[in-house]
Design brief:
2 copies of one chain form a homodimer. Chain A is mainly alpha-helical and 247 residues long. Chain A has 11 helices and 3 strands; from the N terminus they run H-H-E-H-H-E-E-H-H-H-H-H-H-H. A 3-stranded antiparallel sheet of chain A has the order 1-3-2. In chain A, strand 2 and strand 3 form a beta hairpin. In chain A, helix 3 packs across helix 4, helix 6 packs antiparallel against helix 7 and helix 10 runs antiparallel to helix 11. Chain A is globular. The two termini of chain A are 25 Å apart. The N terminus of chain A is likely disordered. Chains A and B meet through helix 4, helix 5 and helix 8 of A and helix 4, helix 5 and helix 8 of B. Chain B binds a DNA duplex (30 and 30 nucleotides) through helix 4.
DNA sequence: TGTCAAGAATATTTCGATATTGCGCGCGAT
DNA sequence: ATCGCGCGCAATATCGAAATATTCTTGACA
């Protein structure tokens, strides 16, 4: 419980430009709890489908039901949790159909955003991509402690890399949509390593090729590579998901 | 105040499959207030940029702050209102940049969804499109009472028509994204008639052509027509928005 | 006259408690 | 034995007010 460190989801939170907060960075309790709740879900500390009881959460985050409720409401609006009117909230369960929809949507939208980003990217953007890719390339996928679990560092670096690629798209709405789809996919990716692991896939190589195409301004090729990258991930997850759902 | 009749936004609410509600349709207070709040904003009863004070809203909707807060939180997550941490909420203001982004996003995503819808549409879908188009075609754009204001009936019929077109897209996520973008655009459209009015545009004709292309299964043409339709609307709004922002 | 600080006034955020709702169990009737 | 009914428990939804933050007002001091 508690004191959860930075993780993939934090990356999105960073995006919001911190407005001038004069006194003591007066961030609200709601915001804190929302961020933690979100991180806990995206990082897989809570299983998909789990019921989220108010009593548990108020104790866990040490706040009143109102605050928990607001956090859950926001997550529900994003689709990370689901709300059933008199039955409370639960983490959105995984389903093959949704994964398929999600992948199609991501291929289309993330592809579009990537193309726009490449077309508008300047030198600063290129630098960021190079940096993010370097970090990702040097980070091990398996966590040191438990090799069967995906390492938090890699997940973060992975998230940062893909975000860096998209960062130069000038259309905020589309960019946010792409990021929100990535978050949704994060839930699926979290439960994938045990199966995807023994695949004969060179994920790091895919990233290298993707970064190269983007940096040389070859939007068409980059989009093609991204598409393939996403579909491959889905294929690996598909098997895993089926295993989960039969539990 | 209060007792606001059905309107454009209600259309989206309908989508959510009403789950079996056994006793007295136990809809929650929160849901009611959220729906009304949303309708009030989308229908233009509240000006973009307006500050939304809790005191006003609790009185207006006759409920406690918690309920208002939840509604606002949900709307904020959708982008219809904005939340500034210790300063409350206000209706998202209009801006030319955002309108441009919005239009681009809609052309891309709504176009994509329309294509998928046409490709997957069956006879029931065709019937719905025909019906929705008929209703739209027979509804007058100007309201009887005040000809300078866009009639609520037309707005509703318009919304229903475009929704009907998209309804056969099997990808729920993409479909919802397209609908949510349409809602965002609704805010802009609401403030458009006074300028767009004297344009030499045949909006109903555009709808007729769009419906025809969709029904004959010509996805490419339909998408082209939709693209044009959306861009024309934006062009009309652009002028209007500039006028509003200088107020 | 301008600036700054203290305090009043106003608005938002958070809390704890009450009101509702849904669910399961036991009891009685058929 | 099974079905229907109602009581009580558990969990959520809603309330109203206390706690906190911000803005506005006022008045002293340079």
């Amino acid at each position: 419980m508690g004191e959860v460190a930075d993780d993939a989801s934090a990356a999105r939170t960073e995006m919001q430009p911190a407005r001038h907060r004069s006194p003591l960075a007066a961030i609200t309790r709601t915001e804190q709890v929302y961020t933690q709740l979100r991180a806990d879900i995206l990082s897989g500390r809570v299983l998909p489908g789990t019921k989220l009881r108010f009593a548990d959460l108020t104790e866990r985050y040490d706040c009143s039901t109102s605050v928990v409720r607001e956090g859950l409401t926001r997550l529900a609006e994003q689709g990370l949790v689901q709300s059933e009117p008199q039955h409370g909230f639960h983490v959105t369960p995984l389903s093959q159909d949704d994964l398929d929809d999600l992948t199609t949507a991501r291929c289309e939208i993330e592809g579009l955003v990537l193309r726009m980003s490449i077309e508008h990217g300047n030198i600063a953007w290129e630098s960021d991509v190079v940096a993010a890719h370097h970090a990702l390339d040097r980070t091990s996928m398996e966590s040191a402690a438990d090799p069967v679990v995906m390492s938090d560092e890699w997940t973060l670096a992975h998230s940062r890399f893909h975000q860096a690629l998209l960062a130069a798209c000038p259309n905020q709405r589309l960019r946010n949509m792409a990021l929100s789809l990535r978050d949704a996919a994060e839930l699926y990716r979290r439960w994938s390593l045990p199966i995807g692991h023994d695949d004969d896939r060179d994920v790091q190589g895919e990233h290298r090729a993707l970064a190269a195409a983007a940096l040389r301004g070859d939007a068409a090729e980059a989009v093609r590579l991204l598409d393939e990258h996403l579909r491959r991930t889905t294929r690996a997850l598909g098997t895993r998901e089926r295993a989960l759902s039969t539990q």
